[in-house]
Design a protein that fits this description.
Length: about 475
């Protein structure tokens, strides 16, 4: 694997301009003072109650996501290019989803294979021919970005269903401003605090035509046992909207109402943090106690907006990801600003042969996997694990893609033995309303806290950092 690009010190050890002020501040700050503030940050997070549930761990159901107090810094010029690429990609994703559920021009053109759509469990035939308000399917996108050199950002994954993590982005900034006012005073950092206002404005803008002039928005959560429940309650509070569970809603005459102390109140926009399978037991899983019976009939009647729309999962499938550069070109007639990571489709015989011959050097992922589960990191795997994966690939090649083991960029991070480089990725959040696409300046930087580890997922022991975009 190539040497990782150090975002602070570059490839040649020369301090990069965006980090010059941070470097001076670190030189002036005693290590014990930094450690004291790190401990204070952890205490604040515990008091606030920011936890993340980890399924399958017998010893604990919830834990604190580790927070690193050294910010990741991105220059304004770098961000401008990244922002343009994120907007371009999100625009193409929305056009792709409308086409898949309507004319299917892209399938007739042979750009994307039919079977990849129609045999995909994330494809929802119920959405065929169904219009959605303002043709917006993905209102909130979380697009995972990695960096391997000074000049390029790459898209690692498109999260178009119910992307999480924005609450940690907001809380990280609040903690940093509280604990490091002196460091903030040395930089012009673009604000992220406007995100809740922009999200609410975005959601209201896509309300159905039958909504009142002041559309009512609610946030639908699976409940307190969901891994991201903290975020659901946090966002509902910041947005100033009701946090509801399925049992709080009722459908009457193809309209959705929530139960309140003053009687039933119509809901126009539902920011749902509940997967398609569970939202309506009359349409999808009949055993779901989390959804709202009849919700899809109200949706089909055009009386409620669901954000994100039903059926968006087809766009963030990892096999579909490999076609995204072609999708951007097909709908926009433009070259993608943000490149994909090179990807081998194991469903194709030539690609499968290459992957099987090079398993020890590659990262292999399940096309429907998430959270860092169900994947093989070849260079870090045992021979037995590699052979077990080889058998899986031979049995079900269409269920996997493979990518090179990237030397993800590193950022300085507090460790038990002092500052050290650790690998990072970035999840910016893109909001698409009826007229505008907005990208919050920053996003959630996830950091692999173990030395040499490339797995940044919170569920796999990763932490987070505040992301500073310099307002130049």
């Amino acid at each position: 694997m190539a040497v990782a690009f150090d975002e602070m010190n570059g490839l040649d050890g020369a301090l990069r301009p965006a980090y010059e002020e941070l470097s001076r501040w670190l030189a002036e700050t005693p290590p014990d003072a930094l450690e004291h503030r790190r401990a204070e940050a952890e205490l604040l997070f515990r008091r606030i109650g920011i936890t993340f549930a980890v399924y399958g761990e017998a010893e604990s159901t919830e834990r604190l996501i580790p927070f690193d107090v050294i910010p990741r810094i991105i220059s304004g010029k770098e961000w401008s290019r990244l922002e343009a690429g994120l907007k371009q990609r999100t625009r193409a994703i929305n056009m792709f989803l409308k086409d898949l559920y309507h004319g299917r021009d892209i399938l007739r053109a042979g750009v994307v294979p039919d079977d990849l759509v129609f045999q995909n469990p994330a494809f929802r035939p119920e959405m065929n021919g169904q219009d959605v308000p303002h043709d917006v399917y993905v209102h909130i996108a979380g697009i995972d970005i990695v960096r391997t050199d000074p000049d390029e950002f790459y898209v690692l994954e498109d999260n178009a269903r119910t992307p999480s993590g924005v609450s940690y982005m907001l809380e990280n900034r609040e903690i940093m401003m509280r604990l490091f006012p002196d460091l903030f005073a040395r930089h012009r950092v673009a604000p992220v605090e406007k995100y809740p206002d922009e999200l609410l404005s975005c959601l209201r803008s896509v309300a159905p035509r039958s909504a009142s002039t002041e559309p009512t928005v609610a946030l639908l959560t699976p409940g307190v046992y969901n891994s991201a429940f903290y975020e659901h309650s946090f966002l509902a509070d910041k947005l100033g909207v009701e946090l509801v569970e399925g049992r709080d809603l009722i459908v009457k005459n193809d309209e959705v109402f929530m139960r309140t102390t003053e009687g039933l109140k119509r809901v126009d926009v539902l920011y749902r943090r509940l997967d398609d399978d569970y939202i309506d037991p009359l349409t999808f899983r009949p055993d779901s106690a989390l959804g709202v019976p009849g919700l899809m009939s109200a949706y089909m009647a055009g009386n409620i907006t669901l954000a994100n729309a039903v059926g968006t999962g087809i766009a963030d499938d990892k096999a579909m990801y490999s076609y995204m550069p072609d999708i951007v070109k097909f709908y926009l007639g433009e070259e993608p600003i943000l490149k994909n990571v090179p990807t081998w489709r194991c469903r194709e015989a030539g690609d499968l042969a290459y992957v099987l011959d090079n398993l020890g050097d590659l990262v292999v992922k399940e096309v429907h996997g998430s959270g860092g589960y169900g994947m093989l990191i070849g260079p870090a795997a045992t021979k037995a694990t590699i052979e077990a994966f080889r058998d899986k690939l031979k049995r079900e090649p269409e269920g996997f893609i493979a990518q090179p083991t990237l030397a993800l960029s590193t950022c300085p991070t507090c460790t038990a033995s002092g500052l050290a480089p650790r690998h990072v990725d970035l999840r910016p959040f893109v909001l698409t309303g009826s007229k505008n696409i907005n990208v919050v300046p920053g996003g959630l930087t996830r950091v692999a806290l173990q030395e040499g580890s490339l797995v940044v997922n919170s569920s796999q022991g990763g932490g987070t950092k505040d992301t500073w975009i310099l307002d130049e």
